[in-house]
Amino acid sequence: MPTDPITVWLGRLQAGESSAAGALWQTYFHRLVGLARQRLGAAPRRAADEEDVALSAFDSFCRNAEAGRFPDLADRDSLWRLLAAFTFRKAAHHVRDAGRKKRGGGADAGGDIEAVLGREPDPALAAEMTEECERLLAALGDQDLRRVAVLRMDGYSVDEVAERVGCAPRSVKRKLQLIRGIWEWEAGDGTA
Fold first, then answer.
1. Measured on CA atoms in the order 52, 54, 60, 65, is the torsion positive or negative?
2. Residue 105: how many CA atoms within 13 Å on its side-chain side?
């Protein structure tokens, strides 16, 4: 039986007990806001600020956790890495969208994840994972492929991805096969 309250709350959330989300939110709110602030940098905050980004990231995480999309998520370390990834992605989307609205593009989201994750165990691993994820997504080159990859990483099924991107499941499977090929090539430093 887990004695760590984070692990207990996480288990309750995954079991569909939405009240556990409040306890997790109280624990991680300030850190997620700080992470979002770091990632947003000098981006305009008219439409949304760092608290909005943190709330959106946490909401996405909770919906996915309650839907059973993270079966291997079991402790505070993996929870923080996942929350950080959601927050970084939401902040990057905000910066991208703000840049579209502003003539001449937006500011770079910047931010060193290793410095932000400081208090949690193994921040170097979290930074390495984030950098590698960003590198692999950039290697796809195609926005549609990136969207399919992100949705699958978020735990959506092939059918759910197909519905969200507006194509047939068979097309999603072909895109996933292409993504795997690109990523295998990238993992082999382009020599495979």
1. negative
2. 3
pLDDT of residue 167: 93
Are 91 and 53 in contact, with CB atoms under 8 Å apart? yes
- Domains held by the chain: number: 2
Query: Amino acid letter at 96?
Result: R
- Please choose, from the candidates 40, 39, 77, 35, the residue with its C-alpha nearest in 3D space to the C-alpha of residue 58: 35
17 and 109 together in one domain:
yes
70: part of which helix (H) or strand (E)?
none
Q: What is the pLDDT confidence band of residue 70, given thresholds at 50, 70 and 90?
A: confident
- Whether residues 41 and 100 fall in one domain: yes
Give the chain's largest Cα–Cα span: 55
Residues 150 and 58 in one domain: no
Return the structure tokens found at 35: 């992470």
pLDDT digits (tens, 9 = 90+) for 96-143: 776 665 545 444 444 444 444 444 444 555 566 677 777 778 888 888
Same domain? For 174 and 91 the reply is no
Contacting residues for 27 by C-beta, under 8 A, at least 6 apart: 6, 9
